[in-house]
């Protein structure tokens, strides 16, 4: 394949077919667990049968693929056109479970949730061109603090995977061994390989870790045997959307939180790919997020937002092409249409995924540290802004019940329970107050 013109930014370069597919699969492997976890939690909570739960997961994969294509390829003023994976926002799980708790019969909650998500998506789409103006409040000390917190808040997810989801007890020696071996393999491949093979070291490490897990019985092939070959997420499978004010208010608050997180994520990715996200890019990215959210309920999906997990993959592989992530979106759509294909990704043991995720999520945190180093921590009160923001953002990461124990109102908890949102708001406010220049003539 001919080399692309030198004037084309790496984000806009189209890799060859082999690299495109391999890079896309690597992003699928990195984000698959994040996409399927929310529907699994919500579906089980409202009492869905196994077949219905499988359908819900397939629908989430399908809508995540559509949202990712909106973000990476885009049209008109929709889509940041950056290498972003969009998927089901885990921030929405708690509010959605609260909606289910408000129903006499939890099994009737999904139509109410879908109606609220649709309204919240439309509201977010309308607000996008105004919300993006907040970028002026994100100087390097703010964006660096938030980017660092994104990576730090993701690391407990990796640790939970290493524990195989059993966060109430220590990880087994088998789980630790699989995670450590996968981590060592990824590091060795990154050190020894060159070129394209080095770029897909994460994917190769996941394959190697899964193969090593077979002899110790850590690979469960049941999902593959029980999955259907073809299955389309028929519109409104769980009933037509219903619109109730309490659920709509809850989802609209969630939408504002998700837009704040997505703004931070776009700033982070813009730094990594060396294409800074300005107001226009952020507005277009938020339109993709919110349009994808508004359309998802038609196909039984939930609210979508940018996935921070994949920022780490871009940072570690240095593959900046948005078309690589668009290939990931296409794969997600195909997985949503073929449950048996989707189940193949599900056989990767969680400890294996966790071992690779330590590299991915740690890379995000280091990217934030690099931005902070450039912000000049010795200037003004930048050190205080970064220190307090990171501290506040880490509260829900290290103690999920911290604000619940203090009986903080549910609406406020939606913001505070998201470490990224809490750190973002804290950094913006502190920077505005502490680093404000005195009026002319003031002492």
UniProtKB/TrEMBL annotation:
It comes from the Bacteria. It is found in: Cell membrane. Pfam families: Xan_ur_permease. Keywords: Cell membrane, Membrane, Transmembrane, Transmembrane helix, Transport. PROSITE patterns: XANTH_URACIL_PERMASE. It is a multi-pass membrane protein. One of its GO terms (molecular function) is xanthine transmembrane transporter activity. GO terms for cellular component: plasma membrane. The chain crosses the membrane at residues 29-47, 53-70, 112-132, 144-164, 176-193, 200-218, 238-257, 323-346, 352-372, 384-403, 415-434. Belongs to the nucleobase:cation symporter-2 (NCS2) (TC 2.A.40) family. This is Orf+1. It comes from Streptomyces morookaense (Streptoverticillium morookaense).
């Amino acid at each position: 394949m001919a080399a692309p013109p030198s004037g084309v930014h790496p984000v806009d370069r189209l890799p060859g077919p082999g690299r495109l597919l391999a890079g896309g699969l690597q992003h699928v492997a990195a984000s698959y667990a994040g996409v399927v976890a929310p529907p699994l939690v919500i579906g089980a909570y409202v009492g869905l049968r196994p077949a219905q739960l499988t359908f819900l997961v397939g629908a989430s994969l399908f809508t995540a693929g559509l949202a990712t294509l909106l973000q990476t390829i885009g049209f008109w003023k929709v889509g940041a056109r950056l290498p972003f994976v969009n998927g089901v926002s885990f921030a929405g799980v708690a509010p959605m479970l609260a909606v289910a708790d408000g129903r006499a019969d939890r099994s009737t909650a999904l139509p109410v949730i879908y109606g609220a998500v649709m309204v919240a998506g439309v509201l977010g789409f309308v607000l996008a061109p105004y919300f993006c103006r907040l970028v002026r409040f994100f100087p390097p000390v703010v964006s660096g603090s938030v980017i660092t917190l994104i990576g730090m808040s993701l690391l407990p997810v990796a640790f939970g995977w290493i524990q195989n989801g059993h966060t109430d007890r220590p990880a087994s020696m088998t789980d630790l061994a699989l995670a450590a071996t996968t981590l060592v393999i990824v590091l060795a491949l990154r050190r020894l390989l060159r070129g394209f093979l080095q770029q897909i070291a994460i994917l190769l490490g996941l394959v190697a870790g899964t193969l090593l897990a077979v002899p110790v019985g850590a690979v469960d092939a049941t999902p593959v045997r029980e999955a259907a070959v073809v299955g389309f997420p028929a519109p409104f499978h769980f009933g037509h959307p219903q619109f109730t004010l309490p659920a709509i208010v809850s989802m609209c608050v969630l939408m504002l939180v998700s837009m704040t997180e997505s703004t931070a994520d776009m700033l982070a990715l813009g730094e990594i790919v060396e294409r800074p996200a300005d107001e226009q890019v952020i507005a277009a990215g938020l339109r993709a997020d919110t349009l994808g959210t508004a359309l998802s309920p038609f196909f039984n999906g939930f609210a979508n937002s940018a996935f921070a997990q994949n920022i780490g993959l871009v940072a570690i592989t240095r593959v900046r092409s948005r078309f690589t992530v668009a290939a990931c979106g296409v794969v997600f759509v195909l997985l949503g249409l073929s449950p048996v294909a989707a189940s193949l990704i599900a056989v990767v043991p969680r400890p294996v995924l966790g071992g690779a995720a330590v590299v991915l999520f740690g890379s995000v945190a280091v990217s934030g540290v690099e931005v902070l180093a450039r912000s000049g921590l010795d200037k003004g009160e930048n050190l205080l802004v970064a220190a307090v923001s990171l501290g506040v953002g880490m509260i829900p990461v290290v103690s999920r019940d911290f604000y619940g124990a203090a009986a903080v109102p549910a609406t406020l908890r939606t913001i505070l329970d998201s470490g990224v949102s809490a750190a973002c708001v804290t950094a913006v406010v502190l920077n505005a107050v502490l680093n404000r220049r005195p009026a002319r003539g003031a002492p």
